[in-house]
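Below is a filled-in request sheet from our internal design queue. Each sheet records the structural input a requester submitted and the sequence that came back. We keep these sheets so that new team members can see what a complete request looks like end to end.

REQUESTER: design group, bay 2
PRIORITY: normal
MODE: inverse folding
CHAIN LENGTH: 280
BACKBONE (tokenized):
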């Protein structure tokens, strides 16, 4: 598989394989965002920061999360909007050797009476209402988060005394068709209504394909060299009774909470990884 990857030239990230080493052989943890501005905001919380720009604005930020006893090597990069864009960036990150991914993103609520603007959702799985992942595997194949990331995020929320929702979310191909009903197909309204009735918590545009690529490649790499490839997703709600709230302060407070939870989640993932490594 490594020989297969050697044929590819990385085009959309200004990075080399050495950028994703570190953490005593565990490799660098990668935070994925839809927005480069959010990636930049997250990077401001890191130490030993290195900035590697790219003309397409998939800029790479390399740094460390400091703790009392050690520093954790991390990277932050924007995947852009939608699964088709994430597909390019995530595949190139995997080719470069990255094996731990956490999406810190935003979403609209599908349960507006209880999942409100500024709330945090820890994702367990995603409805695959997008076509990108169908190029890799059948629709019946589930898009699920790595158990390790779910546990790490729950522990992180406990450490921060941060309220959260946990459950299934929806990933779509078209914001304007599904959320704003710009489509000529009447089924959009019924589709979103049924997701609400089935208890799906929120709707966004990247997570399902992150989970599919991570799950498929995890199986591939475990067969080759017993290396795990894991992924999680933390979402801040930016709209409830309307697709986008006009309460910018509430949204920003929620995004800040999502970033705090993401950073604490990586700390917990590091503890999980270290324990697993020492038990082998």
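RETURNED SEQUENCE:
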């Amino acid at each position: 598989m490594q020989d297969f990857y050697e044929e590819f030239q990385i085009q959309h990230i200004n990075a080399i394989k050495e950028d994703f080493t570190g953490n005593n052989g565990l490799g660098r943890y990668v935070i994925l965002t839809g927005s480069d501005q959010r990636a930049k905001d997250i990077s401001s919380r890191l130490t030993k920061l290195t900035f590697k720009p790219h003309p397409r604005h998939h800029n790479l930020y390399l740094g460390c999360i400091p703790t009392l006893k050690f520093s954790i090597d991390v990277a932050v990069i924007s995947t852009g909007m939608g699964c088709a864009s994430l597909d390019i960036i995530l595949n190139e990150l995997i080719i470069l050797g990255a094996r731990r991914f956490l999406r810190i993103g935003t979403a609209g609520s599908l349960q507006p009476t209880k999942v409100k603007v500024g709330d945090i959702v820890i994702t367990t799985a995603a409805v695959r209402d997008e076509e990108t992942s169908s190029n890799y595997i059948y629709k019946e194949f589930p898009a699920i988060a790595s158990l390790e990331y779910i546990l790490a995020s729950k522990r992180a929320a406990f450490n921060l005394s941060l309220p959260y929702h946990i459950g299934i979310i929806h990933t779509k191909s078209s914001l304007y068709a599904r959320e704003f009903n710009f489509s000529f197909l009447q089924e959009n309204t019924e589709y979103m209504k049924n997701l609400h009735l089935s208890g799906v918590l929120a709707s966004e545009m990247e997570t399902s394909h992150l989970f599919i690529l991570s799950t498929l490649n995890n199986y591939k790499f475990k067969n080759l060299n017993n290396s795990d490839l894991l992924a999680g997703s933390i979402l801040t709600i930016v709209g409830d009774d309307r697709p986008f709230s006009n309460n910018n302060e509430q949204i920003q407070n929620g995004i800040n909470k999502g970033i705090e939870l993401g950073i604490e989640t990586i700390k917990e993932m590091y503890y999980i990884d270290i324990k697993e490594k020492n038990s082998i």
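SHEET NOTES:
- The CA atoms of residues 79 and 86 lie 5 Å apart.
- The domain at 2-279 is CATH 3.40.50.1580 (Rossmann fold).
FILED BY: M.R.
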